[in-house]
Amino acid sequence: MAPLKILISNDDGVFAEGIRTLANAALARGHQVSVVCPDQERSATGHGLTLQTPIRAERADELFDDGVQAWACSGTPSDCVKLALFSLLDEWPDLVLSGINHGPNLGTDVLYSGTVSAAMEGTIEGLPALAVSSADFQWRQFAPAARLALDVAERMLAEGWPSNMLLNLNVPPRPAEAIGELRWCNSAVRRYTDQFEQRVDPRGRSYYWLAGEVVNDLEAQVSGPAAWPTDVAQINAGGVSLTPLQPDIFWRGRTADLPVW
């Protein structure tokens, strides 16, 4: 296909191996690549924006292959995409990519994810956008996830990307030859147990550390086609999950169950 103008962001920061792998892979395919991402890790920031302090952006081209233009931004992932679109880039991109995240973004965790929120910022502005995550925090072989993300994005653009749709791609932590099939998936329900650990500092004052254990509720009813697996089940089976999301989070229950006002 013709070269694309691609904007790439993340929530793991400009020094993360995942974003370097994705940006350099896109460049190697002949695309025009711009990176605007946080200057440090901003995981689990959700769709937060910086309102009380100034946002700074410094060039960081040297961290990527020659030809990638990059900025390290002091704000959140959503700040980065907004700043790129409305201030830093001369032209808007054809595609927004976010990732490759160091860890999964499955089920209801997408509500907290800075990676997904960065991509969602592109969707809100009417741009095709895809978030990609490596579904293990310790896995560092990002090349297969980069290839899959670019393959999916290029095919979706060639066949017609539906408006108002964000794609959330999760890749299992396996070598390329051991990765299972890619399937459309519903979002699972994920909850956490024992979410806070109470500790005491040297001065005897209590503080709390967020340290919960994830619980995947595979029996919960979820929205979406009944024939589709959940993203969690697909990853657990060794396959690749691809979930369509949208900014609209309007309730989809029965209006007959609501009182009349």
UniProtKB/TrEMBL annotation:
Database matches in Pfam families: SurE (PF01975)
Main location, first listed in the record: cytoplasm
Residues that, per the record, bind a divalent metal cation: 11-12, 43, 101
GO cellular component labels: cytoplasm
InterPro entries: SurE (IPR030048), SurE-like_Pase/nucleotidase (IPR002828), SurE-like_sf (IPR036523)
Cofactor note: Binds 1 divalent metal cation per subunit.
Record's catalysed reaction(s): a ribonucleoside 5'-phosphate + H2O = a ribonucleoside + phosphate
Cofactor: a divalent metal cation
Keywords recorded for this protein, A-Z: Cytoplasm, Hydrolase, Metal-binding, Nucleotide-binding
EC numbers, comma separated: 3.1.3.5
Domain of life, source organism: Bacteria
Subcellular localization, as worded in the UniProt entry: Cytoplasm
Function statement: Nucleotidase that shows phosphatase activity on nucleoside 5'-monophosphates.
Similarity remark: Belongs to the SurE nucleotidase family.
Protein name as it appears in the record: 5'-nucleotidase SurE
